[in-house]
Inverse folding.
């Protein structure tokens, strides 16, 4: 029998509801609802409009039932990492969740260094140091708004928050919790000693549950609002990268993945965390996966291109993605190189000018036109991927012979070919909708329709077209 699963996938710039139908060992997707997502600024502070996003979820459920029938086996939600909501008395939000690019975390890593050496923080969490991490967001709250933590009773990461609003069940799912830099990946429990030193009360943190856990059914009120039956809600790989990697059709232990979207997550799957002085020096991270650890490095991704595109559109030059990639393909390669992860590129800005400024400051040719700017960004991303891949080989002690790119970046054929050329490795690109696919497959695993992650990946290989890029000289 065919089974239907409704996946909600939230990225930093948009969200969608996708219906996945598993039938005869194959999976097909039907888009149900698509909507905008992004920061809302109030007095210069960046928030997520969480209540509107909840309403978009309800609309997605409503449309799925209306257009595809009420026999939906499950619902799963995945989102970006690190952001959260604090619930106070009566489970009411203390404030709207902050956007990770909000300036409140400026200088917080340095403040944390005064409380505990980075080596000790890394030993307990194995997570890459980024000022956007939940740990440093909460340190900012502890320093600047202590009343919020004093009154908080629960912390729920964004997908946990939406799951709670749908079911009334509060829980912290493993993969999304691991992005916080507050979880010990060796024990799978919260790093309470670390939190005590940072002045963060561990009482606000709940039970860690594994991906595939059935949380409960839609509450009666949500079912009435949406016209849906009381459909089970499954905690999937609630971090969008965990869901995307679950859908990466990796073969063998010598494959790496790049989950390519606003961010590029470049990594491998391991049975145990890799936490040592060298992985700390390279600033690698150990995040939760579907029955494994995702050992990876966060790299700034399509954000560089998105911001350039936005700035040019506001100036009256609204280029399509294809136009920009075409201009980049025609530009001189490797003329100028940036570090995609430089702090000047983190926040919304005049990205073309920031790229030019970086090149001026490093005594390189300054890219002038749109094609040269985009080419500098894409060349630099491919070079950063090469650096990360080679460092992973050092840390694991074995070669990586193939890279699987999944997500929206698959459609950037120039970057896919550049990645193969620069790294000297075969690149398998696809599927594009990896996050929604992984979300659906983990739902099916949680409900017993699929027996293992290997079987889930076999379904991906049988259901979607993949493109191979061979490295060129």
């Amino acid at each position: 029998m065919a089974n239907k699963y409704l996946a909600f996938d939230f990225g930093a710039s948009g969200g969608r509801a996708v219906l996945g139908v598993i039938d005869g060992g194959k999976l097909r997707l039907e888009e149900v609802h698509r909507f905008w997502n992004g920061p809302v600024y109030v007095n210069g502070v960046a928030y997520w409009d969480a209540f509107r996003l909840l309403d978009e979820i309800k609309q997605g459920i409503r449309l799925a039932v209306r257009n595809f029938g009420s026999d939906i086996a499950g619902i799963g939600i995945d989102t970006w990492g690190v952001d959260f909501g604090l619930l106070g008395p009566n489970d009411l939000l203390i404030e709207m969740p902050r956007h990770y690019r909000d300036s409140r975390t400026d200088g917080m890593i340095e403040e944390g260094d005064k409380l505990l050496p980075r080596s000790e923080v890394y030993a307990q969490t194995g997570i890459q140091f980024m000022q956007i991490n939940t740990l440093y967001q909460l340190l900012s709250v502890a320093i600047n708004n202590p009343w919020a933590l004093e009154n908080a009773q629960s912390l729920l990461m964004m997908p946990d928050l939406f799951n709670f609003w749908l079911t009334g069940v509060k829980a912290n799912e493993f993969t999304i919790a691991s992005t916080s830099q507050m979880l010990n990946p060796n024990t799978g429990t919260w790093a309470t000693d670390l939190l005590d030193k940072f002045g963060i009360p561990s009482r606000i943190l709940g039970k860690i549950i594994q991906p595939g856990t059935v949380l409960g059914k839609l509450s009666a009120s949500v079912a009435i609002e949406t016209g849906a039956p009381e459909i089970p809600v499954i905690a999937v790989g609630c971090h969008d990268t965990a869901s995307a990697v679950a859908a990466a059709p990796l073969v063998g232990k010598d494959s790496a993945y790049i989950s390519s979207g606003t961010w590029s997550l470049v990594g491998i799957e391991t049975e145990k965390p890799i936490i040592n002085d060298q992985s700390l020096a390279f600033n690698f991270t150990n995040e939760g996966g579907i029955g494994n650890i995702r050992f990876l490095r966060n790299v700034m991704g399509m954000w560089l291109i998105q911001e350039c595109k936005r700035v040019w559109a506001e100036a009256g030059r609204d280029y399509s993605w294809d136009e920009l990639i075409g201009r980049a393909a025609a530009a001189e390669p490797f003329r100028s190189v940036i570090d995609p992860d430089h702090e000047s590129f983190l926040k919304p800005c005049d990205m073309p000018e920031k790229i030019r400024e970086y090149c001026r400051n490093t005594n390189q040719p300054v890219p002038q036109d749109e094609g040269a700017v985009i080419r500098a960004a894409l060349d630099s991303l491919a070079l950063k991927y090469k650096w990360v891949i080679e460092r992973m080989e050092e840390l694991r002690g074995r070669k990586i012979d193939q890279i699987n790119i999944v997500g929206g970046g698959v459609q950037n054929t120039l970057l896919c070919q550049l990645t193969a050329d620069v790294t000297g490795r075969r690149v398998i690109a696809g599927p594009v909708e990896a996050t929604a696919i992984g979300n659906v497959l983990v739902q099916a695993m949680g409900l017993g329709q699929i027996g293992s992650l290997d079987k889930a990946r076999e379904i991906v290989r049988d259901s979607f077209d993949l493109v191979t890029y061979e490295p060129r000289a």
